[in-house]
Amino acid sequence: MTAILVAHDGGAYLDRTLEALAEQTRPPDQTVIVDIGASSRVTEHPAGLLGVQHVAAPSSLSFGDAVKAAARVLAPASTDGEWLWLLAADNAPDPDALRAMLAAVEISPSVSVAGPKLMQWADPDYLYSFGESMTRFGTAVELAEPLLDQAQYDRESDVLGVSAAGMLVRHRVWTRLEGFDPALPAVDDALDFCVRARLAGHRVSLVPDARVLSAGRRSPGTAVLGPRTSRTRRSYLERAAQLHRRLVYSPPLALPLHWLSLVPLAILRALGQLLRKQPGSVLGEFGAAFAVAFGHAASVPAARKRLKRERTLGWTAIEALRLPWAEIRRRRALAREDATSARRAGRHEIRFLAGGGAAVVLVAALLGLALHVPLLGAAGVAAPGLLPLGGVGELWGSLGYAWRGLGDGFVGVADPFNWILALLGTVTFWSPSYSIVLLYVLALPLAAAGAWFAAARLTASAGLRGIAAAAWTLAPTLLVALDQGRLGAVVAHLLLPWLFFALSTARRSWVAAATASLLAAGVLAGAPSLWVPLLALWLLTTVALASAGRRGRGWHRLVGLPIPALALFLPLGVQHVLQGTPLGVLADPGVPLAATTEPNSVLTSLAFLVGLPGAGSTGWAKWGVLDPAAGEVLAVVLLLPLLALALASVVLPGAARAAAALAVAATGFATAVLAVRVAVGAAGEAAVTPWPGAALSLTWLGLVGAAVIGLSAGHRVLARTARVTLGGLAAVGIAAAVVPLVWAVATGAGGAVPGAPRTLPALVTAGAATDPTTGTLVLEAQSGSGISASVERGSGETLEQQSTLYSAAPPDAALGADLPSLAANLASRSGYDPVPVLEAQRIGYVLLAPGTRETRVVHDRTAAAMDANPLFAPVTSTEHGTLWRYAGLDAGMPAAAPSGPGGFDTALGGAILGMQLLVLLVTLLLALPTGGLADWWRPEREARRGSGLQAGRRSPAAVPVRTMPTLAFGGDHGE
Amino acid sequence: MASSALRIGGRVASGIVAVGGAAVLVFGGALLPAPAPAVAGVDVTPAAVDQYRACPGPLVRLGDEFGQDVTTVNTFGAPEVTAGTVAVWGAAWFPLADIDVAARADGVASTVITAPSAGADDQLLAGAQAQVASAADVAGLAVAGCTEGAASSWVVAGATDTGRTSMLLLANPNDVAANVDLVLYTADGPVEAPGVQDLVVPPRSQKALSLAGYAPGASQLAVQVRSRGGLVTASLQHAVVRGLEPGGVDVVGRTAAPATTQVIPGVRITTAEAATARSQVGGSQDVQTVVRILAPSADTELSIGVAPESAGGTGTSVDVHAHAGRVLDVPLTGLDDGTYTVTVTATEPVVAAARASTVAPPADGEDEDEESAASDSGSGSGSDAEESEESGIGFDVDGPLTDVQVQDGERVDLAWFSAGGPLSGPAAIAVANAASPRLAVVNPGDATVTLTLTGGGSQQAIELAPGASAGVDLAPNAMYVLAGGGGVSASVTYAGDAELAATPVRPANPLATPLTVYH
Question: What is the DSSP-derived secondary structure letter of residue A158?
Fold first, then answer.
C-alpha cells in the first residue's frame, strides 16, 4: 500500500494534507512525495509518516505523469494486493479514509479502482465530487451535486469512474493500463482510466465512508491546470479532453467522420457559447478542435492501441453505467429552475409603466407629433444637413470599401454611419427616406424613454426620473440637431442614455457589456468626435476599476467595449491617415456643414458649459425677436439653475457619484471646445469642424445626471421641499430656454421641412429613370471669387453617398484634374472646350444653385457665361437652381459613367466587410438576451467541476442586488 | 464634533473646487487659441478667349431730321471710335446689323471691336466712341465706352417726359440669339408694360427701341436688362429738347450692379452758377445735378456723400429714404465747379448714377462750323442745325404740363456719370477724341493703393490714401492701362464748351477672371 502525493506549490494545503496522511488510522506502508513544485520544495514531513521517499520532478508534469514518475521508483507489483493511493496537495483525507477504502476493496476482489467521497475544502460538510460518468455522447458528468452531504449518494457503489484525487488503484492494473493517458493532462484523465479499467474487466467502486477533501478550482493542481488557469484555458482543456476521448472511443469506421466534424462543430458550438454568454469559451472551442484535429495525430492512435490491447469486454458492458437521458433531463430541469430564479433576483426593478415612464414618453410623443405634423405626409425631410436616402440595395451596397462617385470618384471605406443609415432605411424598405420622417416624429419620445431608463439607474423617485427625461428630451442639442438635420448627432443623443443604462450593469453581465459596446459603436458612428471623451472615460474607468481590487470586480467585461466601434472605424481611420487627413476620421458623417461657432468668446464658452451649441442656435434669431447674441445670453441665464444644481450636487450626499457625472460633463465640454478648433473638412470655401453639439449632449448627460443625484439626496422634509423648488426651477429654466426653438419648429420657421425625395430638378429626375448614370454638374457660387463643384448622378446625391474621406481630402485630390477646369471655365467666358470632359464624365446637365446676397457676383457671372455658351440650352429655374442641358445629350453619351468596385468586389473590401460583419455578429450574439434560452438548452451550474465553492448553500434569491452604480461609467456590481 | 466639522469642511471645499473648475473651464475654453481654418481650393484661370467690346454706334432719333415719319428710327452722324490696346493701336472690328433702324446708305452702324486674348496688361482691349451733335433737335457731346455684354445690366438714366427721348440700344455681339427681358422703373415704381418680355435680339445685331412707348411721361427712369442666351450690351441714348431748343444728349452704358455701396467717381461740374440759374427756369429743372437712386428689392435708408477731388473743395452729404422699386432723384445743391466723388451707402442693395449739365452762353456764329465739322461727316444732316432759332430773344411755349421757357439760346449739354464698379485687376482705358479728357480715380478701401497709369507714351504712379481721389489729365484719342488698382473705381470725363460727357472705367473681361474651385 503506497500513497503517492503529488505536491505542486502546496503551501498550507500540503502541510495539512501531510499531517492528515500521518494521522491515518491505517497509515500507508510507504509514501512517495512527487515534488513538481517550482517554488517550494518539500523537504520536511511529519514524523508520523513512514517510508517517505521524495521524488523531484520537472515542474511541467501533469498529475498523471507525476504519478507515473512516482511509480517508477517503486518496486514492480508482485501481487494483486498492492495498491496505489493517488493524492494531490489539497487532498487531505479523513483519519480513517484509507482504512475504509482498503476495507471496501478487500471484500470485493473484482474492484480494482476505488474512489473516496470528495468534500469541499472550505466546508467539509459539502460534497465536491462522488463518482463520474458519461452521457451517451461521451460528455463527462459528475454524479453528485455539490450539495450538503446527507448520505444521499451513499447507495451508489458501482460507477463508471472516480476522480483522480483520492483514487485507490491496484498497482498492477495501473501498470498494465499504462496509467493516465498522456494526451489528457488534466481533465478526464481519471474518467478515461476508469473506462479503460472497466473495459479490461475491472470494477470501479465508490467508498462512501472514505472522505477526502478537495479545494476544487482553488486547488494548487499542476502546471497544466491550477488556480491561475484562465477560464479560456479551462474550457480549452475540457473540450480538448472530450474530443480526444471521442476519437479514442469511436469505432474505426466512424473515426474519419468524427475527425471531419471537429471544426464545423467548433463553429456551431462557438455560436452557442456566445448565446450562452460565455465569450471566453469561444477561443477554447476553436483551440481544442484544431489541437485535436492536427495535434493529436500521434496520441490518438497510441491511445486507441492501448485501449484495444487491454480491452476484454465490449462497450455494452459499461452501457448501464452511463448516465441515462432521463436523469440528464431531470438534472437540467433543476438547473434551469435555479438559473431562472437567480436571474429574476438579479433583475432590477424598473417599473416603467407604474413608475410614470409610460406617461412621460406619451407626453413626449404627443409633443413630437404636434411639432412634426407637417412632416407626416412628406416623403422625406429637407434640412441643411439632410439628403434623401437611396434604395435599400444602395444603402447596404454603400458599406465597406467601395467605389464612391463623389467628385472625381474614388474607392474608399464607408463612414460607419452608413451602417445606421442602412438599418434605418431597411425599417421603411419601401421608401427608405421615410424612415427619417419617422425618426423625426419619434425622436422626442425615444429620447424621453432612454433618459427615463437611464435616470432609473440613478434614482427611485418617479418625479426625478420624469424631470430627467424631460430635460433630455428638450435638450438644446437635440432640438438644434433636428432643426439642422444633423442626423448623426440625433442618433448619438438618442443612444447616449441607453449606453449609460447598459454600462451601469456591464460589469455584471456579458449581455449588458456587449449591448453597451454596440450602443457605443452606434453613438460613435453618429458622432465620431465623441471618440475623444468616450475613449478617455473608458480608459480612466477601466484602469481605475482594474486597480481597485474587489470593488472593481468585473472590469474585464469593460475591456472589450470599444471593439465593435474600432472594427467600424479602423479601416476608415487607416485610409484617412494614408490620405494625410488623420483628423478627418472625427468629422461628422453626412452632408458637411460649415462651422458657424465663434471659438474665442466667453459667451460661447459659457453656452457650451450649459449645453448650448453656440450662438444662433437658440431659436431667437429665427423667431426674430432678439438678435442671436442677446438670445444666447438669455438662454444661458435660463440654463444657469441647472448648472448651479449640478455643481451643488458635489456638496450633497452622493458626492462621489455626482463628481463622476460632473467629470462626464467636463469631458464633453472639453471636447466641444476642442471640436470647434479643429478643421476636419471643407464645404465649399467654408471650413467644417466636428459639431460641438454631439459633445454637448454628453455635457448635458453629466449635468442632468449630477442634478438628479443631487436632488435625490436626503429624505427629510426640508430636503424634499428644496428638491421640488430647485428641480422645478431648473426644469422651468430648461423649458423656457428652448421655447423659441420649439416655437420656431412649431410655426414652420424651423430648418427641417417636408422634403421631396430628390435634390435635382424634376427634369433631371425624369431622365434618371431611363439612365441613372447621367451626371449633373452642380455649381454653387461662393462669397469670394470661388465656386464649388460636384457631380451628382441620376436623380441626385443621397445621404449614404457622402463620405468624410471626400470632404476632408485636399481639393485637387478630391476633384481630380478635369472637374476644376470644367467648373471654372463653364463659369467664365472662355475658350475652353468642355466636350471631352463632359463626355468622359457623362455629364448631361449643369445646375447652378440659387445665389444669395453674398454669392451673387459669382452666381450671376456663372449664369451669364452659361447662358452665352452655345453648347448648353437653359432649361428651367426651380428652387434647386438654374438648369442647363448639354446639347450633346441628344446624340447620346459615348462613354459610360466612371464607376468602380463594390464592397465585396476587391479582396481588401471583402476582408474589411467580413471583419466588420464578424465582429458585429459576434457582439450581437453576445448581446442577445438569450440567458433563458441558453439555460434551457444546456444549463450549467457555476459550481460544476472544479469550482470547489459552496453552491446550493445560499438561496440565489438572497443575493443582494445593489441598485445604485458607484460610477457613472462603471456601473454597479451586484455581489 | 471634529469629524462633522471635517465633513462640512470637505463639502465646502469640494463645492469651491466645483465652482472654480467651472470658471476655469469657461475662461480656458474662451482663451484657448483657435487657429484660423484655411480651406484650400484649386485656382483656375479660364482658358483665354478673344476679347470683344460692342460700341453703340451713331446717335439715333425717331423720325428724320424734319420730324417726319416718327415711327422709324434713324441714325445720324457718325461717332469717332477710339479702339485698340496700349500695345497695338486700332482693333479689328465688324459691324452689327441694326434691327428696327432704317438702313443707311453709307453703312455707318454700331460696331464690335475684337482683339486676341490678352496675355499682358498692355494687350487688354478697350474702346470708346465720341460724337458731337449739333442738330436742331439733338446737340451736345455723347461719349460712350465700348463694353462687353452682360446677362444683367442696369442702366440708370433717361426720361420720357415732354421733350425727352430715351432710346434703349441692345447690342448682341454673340453668335447666339439673346432673349431680353426689360424691367422699367420710374418714380412710381416698376412699369407693367406689355412687350418688354422676351425681346429677341438676333446674333450680331443691335436693336433700338424708344422707352417712351413703355413708360411715357416719366421724368425719372431706370432700366434693368436681363438677357438669356447671348450677352447683350445695353446703352441708353438720352436726348433733351426744351421747346424747340436742343438741351443736350448722352449715351449711357450700364452702371454697376446692385450693391450696398456705390461709388461714382469724377462727377464733373463745370458751370455751376449758370446751371443753377438755368435750373430755376421752367422746364429746365433737369439741368440741376442729381443722383439717381434705385433700390430694386427693398426699402432702404441711404446716405449720399459728395466729396471733392481736391482737398480744398466743399462737399456735401444727404440722407434719404428710398422705397423699393421707385426711382429717386436726389438733387445735389451748393456744389462749386470741380470734380466730385459721389458715394452712396445703403442698407439694401441699390444702383446709382449721377447727372450733371453744363450750360454755355449763346454761341457766336463760328462755333457752329466746328460742331458741324465734328459731327456731320458725310451726311450733311448737321447743316440743318442752322435752322435752330438763336435770336437771343427768349420766348415762351405753352406746354400741356409745364411752362417751358427758352432762355436766350443758352447751350446745354447733359452727362450721366455711372458707377463702373470696383476694379479687380488691370483695366484698359480708351480715351475718346473729345474735349479735355480727365481720369478720376477714387480709392474707397481702407488701405493706401499705388496705381500705375501707362499710356500716351509715359508711365505715371498715382498713390491714393484710403478714401482719397485723384484726377489726371489724359491725352484725347489715346489708350491707357490702369494697373494695381484692386478695389478702386475710376472714370474718364470730358468737358468742353457746352460739352459734357463721362464713361466709367469697367473691369476688363469680368467674366474671365481666375476662379477658385472648391469641393
Answer: B
Contacts of B150 in chain A (CB under 8 A): 864
Residue-wise pLDDT for B20-43, tens only, equals 999 998 888 888 888 877 788 899
Q: What is the pLDDT of residue B32?
A: 87
To the nearest whole angstrom, how far is the Cα of A129 from the nearest Cα of chain B?
A: 53
Cell 465656386, located at residue: A787
- Are A696 and A608 a contacting pair, CB within 8 Å? yes
d(CA A821, CA B45): 8
Is A640 part of the contact surface with chain B (CB cutoff 8 Å)?
Answer: no
What is the model's pLDDT at position A598?
83
Going by CATH, does the domain composed of A2-323 fall within 3.90.550.10?
yes
pLDDT in tens, B164-187: 999 999 999 888 889 999 999 999
Q: How far apart are CA A703 and CA B22, in angstroms?
A: 12
CA–CA dist B461, B465 (Å, integer) = 13
Helices (H), A48-133: 63-73, 97-107
- Between the alpha carbon of residue A606 and those of residues A666, A729, B16, the distances in Å are 12, 19, 18
Give dist(CA A770, CA A960) in Å, integer.
67
Across the interface, whether the CB atoms of A820 and B26 are under 8 A apart is answered no
Asked which of A86-95, A479-488, A556-565, B33-42 is least confident by mean pLDDT, the reply is B33-42
CA proximity to B287, closest of B414, B153, B477, B111: B414
Hey, CA dihedral for A379, A381, A384, A389, is it positive or negative?
negative
* Domain range annotation of chain B: 51-384+396-511
User: Which of B88, B33, B143, B97 lies closest to B479, judged by CA?
Assistant: B88
Q: Say what the pLDDT of residue A350 is.
A: 67
The pLDDT value given to residue B405: 62
Task: Tell me whether strands B245-252 and B233-242 are parallel, antiparallel or unpaired.
Answer: antiparallel
Distance between CA B303 and CA B486 in Å, rounded?
A: 24
Q: What is the mean pLDDT of residues B144-150?
A: 90
Taking CA A609 as the corner, what is the angle to CA A606 and CA A615, rounded to the nearest 5 degrees?
Answer: 55
Q: Distance between CA A15 and CA A562 in Å, rounded?
A: 47
- Helix, strand, or coil here: A205? strand
The three cell numbers locating residue B250? 448722352
Q: Rounded to whole angstroms, how far apart are CA atoms A431 and A377?
A: 13
Angle, helices A907-927/A510-526, rounded to nearest 10 degrees = 130
The answer to whether A864 faces chain B, any CB pair under 8 Å, is yes
Terminal C-alpha separation, chain B:
70
Task: Give, as one character, the DSSP assignment of residue A508.
Answer: T
Alpha helices per DSSP H over A747-880 = 762-770, 804-808, 811-815, 818-826, 835-840, 856-867
Residues of chain B positioned with their CB less than 8 A from the CB of A670: 25, 29
The sign of the CA dihedral B250, B254, B260, B263 is negative
Residues of A in contact with B34 (CB under 8 A): 599-600, 676-677
Among A661, A636, A633, smallest CA distance to A647 is for A661
Is residue B141 within 8 Å of residue B338, measured between CB atoms? Answer: no
Q: Using the beta-carbon criterion (under 8 Å), do B519 and A806 form an inter-chain contact? A: yes
- Chain B residues in contact with A608 (beta carbon < 8 A): 29
Name the amino acid, one letter, at A126: Y
Please state the separation of Cα A597 from the chain's center in Å: 35
- The residues in A 490-529 lying below 8 A from B, measured between CB atoms, are none
Report pTM: 0.79
Give the 3-state secondary structure of residue A78.
coil
What's the start-to-end Cα distance of chain A, in Å?
47
Spell out the domain ranges in chain A.
2-323, 389-433+767-903, 461-755
Residues of B in contact with A874 (CB under 8 A): 228-229
Closest CA to B375 of B140, B206, B60: B140
Question: Taking CB atoms and an 8 Å limit, are B151 and A601 in contact across chains?
Answer: no
